[in-house]
Each structure stands twice: as C-alpha cells, then as structure tokens.
Amino acid sequence: MAEPSSDQITELLHAWSRGEPQALDKLAPLVHKELHRVAHKYMRLQRPGHTLQTTALIHEAFLKLVKRPKKDWQSRAHFFGVAAQAMRHILVDYARHQQTAKRGHAFQMISLDEGAVISVERCSELVALDEAMNKLAEFDARKSRVVEMRFFAGLSFEEIAEVLGISPDTVMRDWRLAKAWLRRKLSNSEGVLSDG
User: Fold this and answer.
1) Are the beta carbons of 126 and 57 closer than 8 angstroms?
2) pLDDT of residue 39
3) 155 in Cβ contact with 149 (< 8 Å)
4) Is residue 45 domain-resident?
5) pLDDT tens per residue, range 42-98
6) Is residue 50 part of a domain?
7) What Cα–Cα distance (Å) separates residue 14 from each residue in 8, 9, 82, 175?
8) What is the pLDDT of residues 16-41, one digit of tens each?
9) Is residue 10 part of a domain?
10) CA separation (Å) from 121 to 43, 100, 115, 134, 193?
C-alpha cells in the first residue's frame, strides 16, 4: 500500500471538518500510522522499562482530537501541530502523576531532539520542561509552539512553518533560540538539556 500524501490527508481533514463521518474512518488509519511512526522513533531512544507505551499515547491523543469540539483542520501539518499539544498535555499529566507516586530519583540529561516518550525516571525533567515552556510562552508564544511541535509531535521545520505561517528559516532560528533559552532556564532548576 502506497504512503498517503500530505494532500490526501489534508483533503480527508477538510472533509471531516465539514462533518463527513466517512472521512474520519478513512483518516484514522492514515494519521495513526504517522503518529505511531513518530512515537516509535522516540521510543527507540528510551531505555527498556518505560511505563507509558507508544500505543497508549497515540490512542489517547487521537481520542482528544476526535472529541475536540471545533475541527477546523487547515492541513496535515495543522492537524499534527494540534496533536503535538494533545501529546504534550498527556505526557505532562502522566509525568506529574508519576512524580507524585515516585519521588527522589536523580535527574538525567534530556535532549530536545530525543522526543518526549517518557519513563518514570524522566518525569521530573518533563514537568520542568513544561513549566519552562509555559514561561517561554508568556513572552514568546511562537517559540514555545515551535518547541512543542518539534519535540512533542516530531514535525519537520517545513511542517511547523506551514502551521505557523512563517518561513522554515524562521522556524529553525526560533528552535535554536528556544532551545538555548530553555537550557538556561532548566539549568537554573534541577533539570538540564543536553546538546541536541
């Protein structure tokens, strides 16, 4: 079976936005496969024994998107940008829950390029990253969104540029500046970011 094109996914998203239920039936396996591919890439970077499984993350994020009251999808990239927000919220809620259940573990380096599939050992780092991203969003929401879409959804610079309506060069510049700002912010707390 051929890989779905970005245009095919965008057309199905538009049909779903118009209320055509059969579009969701066709769309679900296509976006699920892409979400799984992104999550799987990040899972390979994790140590064995992480407690949040790829499939559970994908299903929960997709359910949030399906239940979203306003479904005005502009494009494939827009959909995956919103999916990034959903994944971020799921992962941070999960990390906060795990943090309250297990305290006192040592911090490890975390790279923004590694992705955000989380193990119990990384819960504190993810919560610290989320708090730092919220502070970044207070004075530069676009840079925070760039990090969110790159880190939590694995979107390319070109896809992020499409969602935000800016050039890929601007996205790359925002990415570099946001990573540097977040590293400084997190180094002032207990968690730090490695180069990535």
Assistant:
1) no
2) 63
3) yes
4) yes
5) 555 444 555 567 777 778 888 888 888 777 888 888 888 888 788 778 777 877 777
6) yes
7) 10, 9, 15, 29
8) 888 888 998 898 888 887 777 666 65
9) yes
10) 14, 13, 15, 22, 15
Task: Specify the number of domains making up the chain.
Answer: 1
Q: What is the DSSP string of 162-186?
A: HHHTS-HHHHHHHHHHHHHHHHHHH
Q: CA dihedral in degrees (23, 28, 31, 35; nearest 10)?
A: 160
| Structural domain range at position 149 | 6-188
For tokens 């992480």, what's the residue?
50
Could you give the angle at which helices 6-17 and 21-43 cross, rounded to 10 degrees? Answer: 130
- Do residues 126 and 92 touch, judged by C-beta distance below 8 A? yes
Distances (CA, A) of 125 to 90, 91, 106: 15, 11, 10
**Structure tokens belonging to residue 112:** 């923004």
Whether the Cβ atoms of residue 108 and residue 122 lie closer than 8 Å to each other = yes
Tell me, yes or no, whether 19 lies in a domain: yes
Residues 129-188 have pLDDT tens digits of 888 999 999 999 999 999 988 887 778 899 899 889 999 999 999 999 999 999 998 886
Whether pLDDT at 112 is above 70? no
CA distance 141 to 176: 15
- Helix axes of 21-43 and 54-67: crossing angle, nearest 10 degrees: 150
Q: Is the pTM of this model over 0.85?
A: no
